[in-house]
Amino acid sequence: MTTASQTTPRREFIYGIRAELPILIGVVPFGMIYGVLAIGAGLPPLAAQAMSAIVFAGSAQILATGLYAAGAPGVVIVLTTGVVNLRHALYSASIAPYTRRLSLAWKGLLAYLLTDEAYAVTITHYHAGGTDAEAIQYKHWFFLGAGLALWSAWQASTAVGILLGALIPSSWSLDFTLALTFIALVVPNIKDWAGLLAALAAGGMAVLAAGLPYKLGLVVASLVGILIGMLVEGGRWRSG
Amino acid sequence: MAIWLTMFFAGLITFGIRLSFIELLGKIELPPPLRRALRFVPPAVLTAIIFPELLLHEESLNISLGNPRLLAGLLAGLVAWRTKNAVLTILVGMAALYLLQTLIH
Question: Could you give the ipTM of this predicted complex?
Answer without folding.
Answer: 0.83
